[in-house]
Write a structure and sequence with these properties.
Layout: H1 2-14, H2 31-35, H3 49-71, H4 73-76, H5 81-85, H6 110-118, H7 120-138
Helix pairs in contact: 1-3, 3-7
One heme C binds next to helix 5 and helix 7.
Length: about 160
């Protein structure tokens, strides 16, 4: 786990870490151009948790950061693991979907229609960019909103760690 922790530290630093001074980091190379939105070398299902973490740090996070920042640079300038995995990510071992994520109600329900009218642009971005890109990055064919968002509230509210 030591290597993973070290890599994580590097990964976080490489992504700018804190909120400040991110937009014009030194000689930015496009992660999308450099690595491509492509599947992992070995199937995701067969990867160890450590390999998965490494893949997230080295590829998924930088590429997704670029996509989210391209959508809304101001809101997602500091995009990182926590945006998908939630504040409690370490306590729950990066289990997805993170219970603290926005709940995407099942299609056809009033809740789903409510989401469409409240977040039309977000949903479009999620449908057209985020979901298909994540599917490609994981090499998982029928990856859906539910891979990242809960579709119902948790039965028992998980204790949220205070920061
Ligand atoms: C764009 C969303 C997104 C971002 C950003 C992201 N992840 Fe993930 N991560 C996922 C999804 C989705 C899965 C689960 C995939 C699956 O198995 O269905 C996952 C799985 C994982 C797993 C494997 C968990 C397990 O038990 O199999 C680890 C570890 C992980 N992520 C760590 C990280 C770290 C560390 C970062 C930041 C460097 C990060 N992730 C950034 C979406 C994301
Ligand atoms: C790879 C992970 C991932 C997938 C798949 C995904 N989303 Fe998201 N979604 C996110 C992240 C990350 C955010 C931003 C969260 C934040 O602002 O902290 C988000 C935000 C949203 C928001 C805005 C919520 C708010 O409170 O501002 C909506 C609505 C949404 N997603 C709907 C969807 C729908 C519908 C789908 C399926 C078509 C989907 N998402 C698929 C990761 C994902």
């Amino acid at each position: 786990m030591k290597t993973v922790a070290a890599l994580l530290a590097v990964g976080l630093m490489a992504c700018g870490g804190s909120k400040s001074a991110d937009s014009k980091s030194t000689g930015k190379v496009s992660a999308i151009e450099a690595m491509g939105i492509t599947p992992p070398d070995s199937p995701w299902e067969e990867m160890s948790v450590e390999d998965r973490e490494f893949y997230m740090i080295g590829k998924v996070n930088p590429i997704m950061k670029e996509l989210f920042a391209g959508y809304d640079a101001e809101e997602f300038g500091d995009f990182d693991c926590v945006h998908c995995h939630g504040e409690e990510m370490r306590e729950i071992d990066f289990k997805m979907p993170a219970p603290s994520m926005y709940i995407v109600p099942p299609e056809g329900t009033p809740g789903h229609r409510g989401m469409l009218s409240t977040f039309p642009d977000e949903v479009k971005f999620m449908q057209e960019v985020v979901t298909p890109s994540m599917a490609k990055l994981l090499g998982i064919e029928n990856f859906s909103c539910a891979g990242c968002h809960p579709s119902a509230p948790p039965k028992k509210k998980p204790a949220k760690p205070k920061r």
